[in-house]
Amino acid sequence: MINTQNILSKGQKIGEKYTVTFFLKKGSYAETYRVKDPEGKTKLLKLFSFSKLDRTQFDENSNILEIEVLKKINHPNLVKYRDSGELLLKNQKYAFVILDFISGETLADKMKRDNTLNLYETKDIISGVLNGLNYLHHLENPIIHNDITNLNIMTDLSGKVTVPRIIDLGYARYISQSNKDFLKDGLNPFYQANESFNKIFSVQSDVFSVGALYYHLLEGLPPWFVEISKYKADIIRLEDAVLEERKKTLKFERNIDELTKQSITKALQPNTENRFKSVKEFIQAINGELEIQQLSEAKEVSKPKIREIKNGQGFNAIAGMQELKETIQLDVIDALNDKKRYAEYGLTIPNGMLLYGPPGCGKTFFAERMAEEIGFNFYQIKPSDIQSKFVNASQENIKKLFDEAREHAPSIIFIDELDAVVPNRNNTGVNHMNTSVVNEFLAQTNNCGDDGVFIIGATNRPNSIDPAILRAGRLDKVIYLPPPDFEARELMFKLYLENRPREVGLDYSALSTATENYVSSDIKFLCDEASRKALKLKSRISKEILLETIERNKPSISLKELHGYITLRAQMEGLSENTNNRSRIGF
């Protein structure tokens, strides 16, 4: 049955050459179709309705600007023009353009499936997009795309190597055109440069959009994202909200190397004076060939602060993990508290330990409880507390941290996401600035236990850490924190529900059985969700409510990921045995 809403129908001949085979999508002024050319090859047809085009979409000769631009371009990272013409259908005038069909998907479609992309795949895509834009920007009459988003980049899967291709040049304008010719209606505000809200477009506007794409692919949301539903009826309020949000510091949630962060941050500068001047600069920056200049005056290195650890329950607050707690007590805590006795037995003072395992298994919680148990001064550090965009500042931050910890010894330094601080220097994505930071960290951790400083590193990606940090005299202990076992899950439910209104005789064993492969943070979430449900029902938290909550919420870590960590654990334990020739105490 033919969809009468579509302008063209299956089997219809276009320009005596092309046969319509499939309707793809409808836009505000155009429709796209899959067609066959005279040789039977699949092509893409874009059909423009003259009556729906804005006046800014025509050139000085009254030709459709997008088609004229497509005729002039030829680059492997751009959509390929083949033919064009005009049609008269039911007394309505249309224009069409024939393009090479790209066998693949848009980045938006890919993100619906994967949510985020890995760093290496993203860099390849961004490099291709920048190469395509570099070509457009260096034409005799340079072209600004103006609409780089995840919707307008396709991954061409037809060859052996995936090739990103820029599509949809509906908003493209020659740089020589007036700002009055700029059409901003329908643009994605999260990808628009600040100046484009005022209809100003330039090479640097495209730079900003690529920076937004880079961030979106890695983080899963556009930069400075705000909820748009309440602004749908008022585009001005939405633009104001976006611009206001951009006054805040750009945040990165994922483990991303410093060079990539610097490049994205530079590209996304609201002020064009601080942005990359060209896509060529952007390309050089992500390849480590261009040192990114300071965006503002260097800030004084902040003094690390001791985090006050209140008198708590220590290890008693940790459900399960009894064997691990006993090992830590013997090998670490007692050794730090009774150095003389351990020295009599020829046992050295430990320098630190690495906690690794799936996300949500309580690495940070364990470190905090250990600080309570041992009573040392506690420094909790994130990568952002150490890393800086200024040359040598990151090394200075590390030195200052260790100087402070030594001054207030005995101290524990807990560093979350250690892989972001000391990445493997053999990886190709690590630049000279990262290498200098790793070298400084290694120097500071050498036998720091003698100075009363104990290091706890935590990571979900131990294989991304520089192996030198795991050698004897640095992080002596490498400890895997798995998802909680049956007993630990049962104790967690008791712990989290202890002071909440619950039914008498709650079957914790059944709850533990139902949550195999759930991590610690999952169980905390389940208890909170069940509590909300009980509050809404004005009832006590029951077994039925908890089991319904468990049924609705699957584990945050997939079985495949868990199996990956089991394999990784075997590799790490093998590495530890091969690289540490000293006697292993309790491990």
TrEMBL record:
Top-rank taxon, per record: Bacteria
A Pfam family assignment: Pkinase
Keyword ATP-binding attached: yes
SMART domains according to UniProt: AAA
InterPro entries recorded: AAA+_ATPase, AAA_ATPase_domain, ATPase_AAA_core, ATPase_AAA_CS, Kinase-like_dom_sf, P-loop_NTPase, Prot_kinase_dom
Chain ranges of the Protein kinase domain: 18-290
Matches recorded under PROSITE patterns: AAA, PROTEIN_KINASE_DOM
Alphabetic keyword roster: ATP-binding, Nucleotide-binding
GO molecular function, one term: ATP binding
Mitochondrion listed as a keyword: no
Family note: Belongs to the AAA ATPase family.
Name the UniProt record assigns to this protein: Transitional endoplasmic reticulum ATPase
Organism: Mesonia algae
